[in-house]
Amino acid sequence: MLIRYPDPIAPSEITPREVYLNRRQFMGAGAAMTLALLGPTASAALPARTSPYSTAEEKNTLKEISSYNNFYEFGTAKSDPAEQAHTLKTRPWSVLVDGEAGKPRRFSIEELLKLAPLEERIYRLRCVEGWSMVIPWVGFPLAALLKQVDPTSRAKYVAFETLADPAQVPGVRERVLDWPYREGLRIDEAMHPLTILAVGLYGDILPKQNGAPIRLVVPWKYGFKSSKSIVRIRLQETQPPTSWSMANPREYGFYSNVNPTVDHPRWSQASERRIGELFRRKTLMFNGYADQVAGLYKGMDLKRFY
Ligand SMILES: Nc1nc2c(c(=O)[nH]1)N[C@H]1C(S)=C(S)[C@@H](COP(=O)(O)O)O[C@H]1N2
Ligand SMILES: [Mo]
Atom 21 (ligand 1): residue with closest C-alpha? Predict the structure, then answer.
């Protein structure tokens, strides 16, 4: 499933427009002065062009995105990750990519950052709990990484594992889930151009509570599929066990596609609350990405494969 990207683009589109214009305006002025005038945007750690896969919906604020989190390795309250995630050490960091691969190997975070052009992907994120946000991720297609290791013909699924070092993610001492946090995708879902590895948001590196230094984002699935702080990616022939379906197979299936017609056994999934808004809005099939992904599930009974 190869989708060609639009042609390479001019630097004027890679740099946020205002920064580019300002830069031209101040060309010739001292670099220090320019930096001072442009403020934090000028030193954005991760410049990236905005991908056409982005939604035009209003973005949630950085404050909202980085203070209302699920990251059970730091506790189960929404405020825990922002308060506790400072113990996570994001350098050095590497991700082992192995299993059904001709060229399995370990990638340092520095290599991962240079693997493919970074793009801004403004995606909706829908949590299975019934809330949603719009987040301007910075990342690159997971497919770009998987291609590097030459998946074999037996690679039917991809398994993801999060760091589980109790010194860095102390929540793994509590048995709320079976650690490490594990997730998985079918290979066609993993290779889909909407599926990204995010390394940043709002033009800067990821806050630790959002899964620094690298996390998965699968925008048409419930948020829990998007594993944070990944240390291992394994290609395999069989469907991998996943943390939430191990914890409660009746409530959380392997597919976990956002689906307003399949209720969670304990609550409806028909609507959601966008963080920052007062009234609930209707949840869209595949979180609004049906045009792009419905074809992946043709002929499947989505009430059975929830
Ligand atoms: N390792 C790990 N990844 C995780 C989780 C977690 O507890 N641990 N929570 C998931 C859930 S339930 C959601 S909704 C999203 C939230 O991502 P965000 O905090 O960046 O918005 O992360 C997902 N990834
Ligand atoms: Mo979630």
Answer: 69
